[in-house]
Amino acid sequence: MVDREVFTLNRIYLFFTLITIAVTAPHADAAYNTIDNVILTDEGGYSSITVVFTGQAKEYRVDPNLSEMVIRVYIPKAGIGTELYTEDLQDRRIKNIRVDMNSSGDAMAEIYIRDIKTSVYHSLSGDGKSLTLRLKSRNSLMIVDTDKKAAKTRQARKKKEEGLIKEVEDIQKFAGRDLYLEAMVAFQKNEFDIAEKKFMEFMSRYPDSIYREKAAFMHAETIYRVSKKKRERTREALDAFRLAAASFPVSGYSIRAKLRIADLYHDMKMNLEAVAVYESIVRSDPEGKFTLSALKGKANVYLIEEKYSLAYNELEKILLLFPAAREAREARFRIAEAFFLRKRYETAARIFEDSNEKWPSFVRANPATLQHFADTYYFLGRKEEALNLYVELMNLFPDQDEGRFAVNRIADMYISQNNKKAALRLLETQARKIPNLPHGLESRLRLAALGHSPAKLINPNTSFVYEYKDYIHPLDTYNEIIKKHGKTTQAREALYQKAQLMNQEKRYIESILALKTMMKNFPKTQFDEKVVWLVKDSLYKTIHNLHDQEGFYTILAVYYDNFDPFLEDIKDAEVVMKVAEAYYEMGLFEKASERFHEAAVLDKQGILQERLRLGKGKVDAGLGNFAEAEETLRPFADRLDTSVYSADAVHLLADVYYLQNKTAEAVDAYERAINLNREHRRVSESAYYLGQLEKSQGNYQDSIDHFNLSIEKGKRFIGMIDTWQIAESQYQMIESAYLAKRYKDALDLSQTALDLYPDNHQSSWAKYLQSDSQLKINEDEKAKESFKSLAETEPDSIFGKVASATLETMQWKQKHKELFAN
Asked: Which of 101, 224, 313, 586 could hold 237 in an S-S bridge, CB 3.0 to 4.6 Å?
């Protein structure tokens, strides 16, 4: 056996170098290796101490100090695991083991021995994963002995001791010592599945063994270690500790078991129970070796529950009661974290800075603390200092959550500085490295968000390393994350970002569907203001689009489908107004009136005043409230050129007069409306009504002119709006020409109308006027044939019957023509 083997920890100099931009950090001369566990086993003839490392150890130093009865072991540049606990490690040779950091930043294990007559042997494992120390008791310090009689006495005593040792060995064998040691060795090697089975076998085969007490607690400890990775076994670990504590209530291990029980309650989020057990440990022995851990446990519970004042109190107790303990140093950092979580960043920064100055290696051995330190600067706006710490975090812990978080935070800072290309390359590196792990997904989401802009930052065809798929095809990224990572927070964010992208691309219905899926899968998001705002924004824009397309029925469908909770309390006056206009177009005048009034109340600055006045006029007209409609619309006619809604309003005012048979007012209003803007979509319809009025007053040529204008202007809107007035005008001109005794024109106009619109409801009437016009211009034979055709094809219609009667009259006149001779 070699007494001493030397190892050195490699320093980390990790530079996160990218293709065209380098993220340069200060050299991180800090520990990457930590002491993860210390295991003590009483092997009978000697005590075995195994120090287990997370990394690979290459150097250590053993320094016995007999005057202080302590053996110190130094591991240069190593850290201490946050879960390491050594205060219950003791046996017949060892009083206590304490692990701490010295002033040089080295990890130090102090082994306090009970007797200076103790030899120590030590060796490092071949893989550097563990350091083993064996402490053996000696009969005395080494001396030169010349007393032969004393030598014989010692020889006899030695023989007797050998007999006793043989007897003890037989007892130990009967007690299952070999199986117990096998279980302990497996535990020391972190082979917990094997250790668990061996401890169970031991307790089954040796129920009365002298090792049963420790085996029961070690069995529970083994399940506890397993439960850290297999959360479903947490309840088993809890039951195992309870059973061990109940079986051996006065055991020296029972307090440690209570601590584990409290920790397990904490893991199971049974925080009330956890606090109660932690508190019972503190009360039972206020200055005991487990009190510090109990106080620390309570503080952790309170921090998670965001009860920062209570957490602060527990951490202060650690500083007060155990000022020299390693945990006191940790408590100081946790106090800083407590202030950070309470958003008291200035106070947190002061404590972090003071603690970091005293113990720089500690904060760099604890990634969560380093992250909170960096975050404190970040939220204070001290971005340069924050960036330096994030880069350290990224370099020191590249494969841990905190280091990966730092990558994304650095990218965010680059984006805020408009250095998007640097962010792009940094995010792409992490996204490709861990595409399906949480922080890799976060990187992909950031890449996709950058990809929303149509102006691309980089051409993937010029890259020799990455394709930037997440950036180039953000929608594909969102859909993949949503599909593959279902219930994760990243899927939730992907749904939200997808909704943003759809909104940006004016695919509002798809945006709304994505948000509704998110609210269904993640119910708490339905109360998130930014989510609600985006839903409403997409709904409002949908209503605007549908209104532009005259999809009035669809507007009302969208309105009712999303009334609760998104459209119940609309604050946008224009949206309310367009809903009102949809009601009006669907003939729901009462509903339209309510919404127009609501929009007027919301329109505080009067931006929509003119359009809302027009809407009110429409509703009044639709409800038959003509007096109110006239009062509302007449001001538009008095100032024709001052409002973009004047033409609409005057056309409508003319309709109101028309419906009340106020002919002169209607004619004047229709003429003013048509002349105001001859390209207005209402010109065709108003010209038709004006033609009707002119005809009723005997102004046949004017009526024909207006019917022609109706046809001319209406043809521009065929396929866009209902152009019923075109056919109507075509037929009305026939009667105007007929009444003006322009029979030849009536003949031509009737034939045109019948050719264009043969199935019109006025076709029988037109055929009759055509036949009668032929008769009027003495085309008797043609008239006779026309009347005959009308009578035969439409015998049951009024005009068919009139044609039949006319035909009989013509035949009678022909038969008795002498009666009509001049």
From this structure: 224
